[in-house]
Amino acid sequence: MKEIRIHARAGQGAITTAALLGEAYFKEGKYPYAFPSFGAARMGAPMNAFVRVDSKPVRLRSQIYTPDYVIVVDATLMRGYNCFSGLKEDGVAIINGPDSLKVPKLKAKQKVIMFSANDIALKFIGRPLGNTTLLGAYAAATGELKLETLLEVAKTRFSGKILEGNLKAIEEGYNHVRAVNS
Amino acid sequence: MKQFFEGSHAVAEIVRLCKPGVISAYPITPQTHIVEDLAQMVADGKLDAQCVNVESEHSAASVVLGSEACGVRSYTATSSQGLFYMSEVIFNIAGMRLPIVLTCANRAISAPINIWNDQQDSISLRDAGWIQLYAENNQETVDLHLMAYRLAEDKSIMLPVMVCMDGFILTHGMEALDMPEQALVDKFLPPYKALYKLDTAEPLTFGALAGPDYYLEARYAIQDTFKDVLAMLPKISEEFRGVFGRDYKDCLVEEYFTKDAERVIVAMGSVCGTIKEVVDELRKKGKKVGLLKVISYRPFPYARVCEALKNVAKVAVLDKSVSLGAYAPIATDVKAAFCGKKKAPKIISSFVAGLGGRDITLESIRDIFRKLTVREVNGEFIDLKPELLKEKYED
Q1: Which fold has domain B253-388?
Q2: Does A3 touch chain B (CB under 8 A)?
Q3: What whole-number distance in Å separates Cα of residue B28 and Cα of residue B111?
Q4: Which residues pair with A115 in a beta bridge?
Q5: CB contact, 8 Å: A36 with chain B?
Q6: Hey, is the C-beta of B361 within 8 angstroms of any chain A C-beta?
Q7: What pLDDT does residue B94 have?
Q8: DSSP character string of B209-244
Q9: Across all residues in chain B, what is the average pLDDT?
């Protein structure tokens, strides 16, 4: 079983991100359970979305406390809040943060990938919504999902120009991590 | 074929397949997605129904009361304060024997205001004369809606059914499930033909005055029918298995490793999935533990509960609601089931957890099993933070 915890603010698309991740895992034959947890239930308030995925139906319904992977959609959440609490010893954190921000230091075996997914999104989608870019990065950094599956899932979710932009954003996120890793 | 669904969307889809003629609801978190989806389906011409916009839940319930009385299959959904605002009409719907199906997206009750999940809303309406069924996951949520209409509309039953699904955990939870095909739904659920209906050509009165000479019998008739529900639900479940292949046994309770168990937790709804995980974990360590999941809360299957638990030494009842000033609701029923019985658990302890969305973790469940000792406890709150109780207001 793998557990993914997404940190975002309400309105930044974390639920869609979890839904797309869930859809992608489902397409690859896994049993995902994706769900949100709201904080103050107001736009801009810190919130989480979760994906728990297994080779058999997921029964566990609690929130995720010891994630394998963490996705931080908004780097300002790292101020005064530990987005990496419980992250597994060999876990991976993917952070949407500006180049000016110092990359957080995690444990020796934990991998941190930080880049401005918002800049990429702005370039391709025209809005600073880095979610799909982060998903591309997630696929490359974890090896959990195929890039093609993510693109396929995006096609069922978006259409027209928005789709075009998101497809490019996913690929760019994927390629960014591949380039960093090589 | 399995598809990946959000729980609310899955409910809207199964309701569409059940072909209601009238839908009326007022949006409230976490029920909103269900009725948004249904309204969209009607607008897109995918569902031939009247979607009646109203200004409150009281009106939503009144609209479906009226449409159902006209002999039209009707549907509504709500949560929390919305259900309470409906409550006056909710009792009337049962009293008039109108087989409406309502989805309760379970949410805590104000005050303090809280949008998160517990089961206080539907539990508080347990005496309304509605059948109440609780789902563990979204496949069950879908299947229970289908069985709910069959059960409600059976001529020997004619009672409304509330299908209860945990807010957010299920309503906003996305998972893979089998959505039944229309042809099979049609086979399982024929069009609704009312025995009696409002018709200007043959006028009738529903919900007329009944004085002391009649009222008592009207209430008795419902109480008597609930006994029939206990026999009818297993039959419908058996037929459901024949058509759709999924087996809910008697659909009153589900027994999970209860047969040789020394310690069993009784619970309802999505928390049962988490409990199953802990049961598996403890079984691997050789501990004889199990789960008794209650699906039908009203009618409460006393005989089935006794049969399942009579040889279990220690029973813990987990309630996600409270009856303030008394024992917890499910615990009360489980204890009553064994009152005066020779074969009974030595200990029936009661725990309250998850109120207002307090997360019920694996550790919460382990804690309940640990606290299930020879010392019986009543209404012990799990994951309570004592330090918060000491906080004082200072300005």
Answers
A1: Rossmann fold (3.40.50)
A2: no
A3: 16
A4: A96
A5: yes
A6: yes
A7: 98
A8: ---TTTHHHHHHHHHHHHHHHHHHHHHHHHHHHHHH
A9: 97
> What average pLDDT does range B53-72 have in this prediction?
98
Q: Which two tokens stand for residue B372?
A: 């299930």
Look at residue A40 in the predicted model and tell me its pLDDT.
75
pLDDT score recorded for residue B393: 86
Helix axes A160-181, A131-142, angle to 10 degrees: 40
- Residue B127: pLDDT above 90? yes
Chain segment A157-166, per-residue pLDDT in tens: 999 999 999 9
For residue B358, the chain A residues in CB contact (below 8 A) are none
Cβ B313 vs Cβ B346: under 8 Å: yes
Position B1 scores a pLDDT of 86
Residue A41 has a pLDDT of 73
Query: Do the beta carbons of residue B47 and residue B96 sit within 8 Å?
Result: no
The alpha carbon of residue A21 is apart from the nearest alpha carbon of chain B, in Å, by: 11
Residue in the block written with tokens 């409002």: B198
Residues with Cβ within 8 Å of B387's Cβ and at least 6 positions away in sequence, in order, are none
On whether the CB atoms of residues B137 and A59 are closer than 8 A, the answer is yes
Q: Does the beta-carbon distance from A23 to B4 stay under 8 Å?
A: yes
CB–CB of A17/A71 below 8 Å? yes
pLDDT digits (tens, 9 = 90+) for B220-279: 999 999 999 999 999 999 999 999 999 999 999 999 999 999 999 999 999 999 999 999
Superfamily for domain range B2-244:
Thiamin diphosphate (ThDP)-binding fold, Pyr/PP domains (3.40.50.970)
Selected for mutation to probe chain A from B114, B118, B174, B179 (highest A CB count within 10 Å) is: B174
Cβ contacts of A4 on chain B, cutoff 8 Å = none
Q: What angle do CA A115, A71, B138 make, to 5 degrees?
A: 150
ipTM of the complex: 0.95
pLDDT of res. A36: 93
CA distance B82 to B25: 10
User: What kind of architecture, by CATH, is found in domain A2-181?
Assistant: 3-Layer(aba) Sandwich (3.40)
DSSP label at residue B188: H
Structure tokens at B146: 């289908």
- The number of angstroms, rounded, from the C-alpha of B35 to the middle of its chain's C-alpha atoms is 18
DSSP state of B128: G
Measured between beta carbons, which residues in chain B are less than 8 angstroms from residue A15? 172
Whether A35 and B273 lie within 8 Å, measured CB to CB: no
Residue ranges, chain A, pLDDT below 70:
none
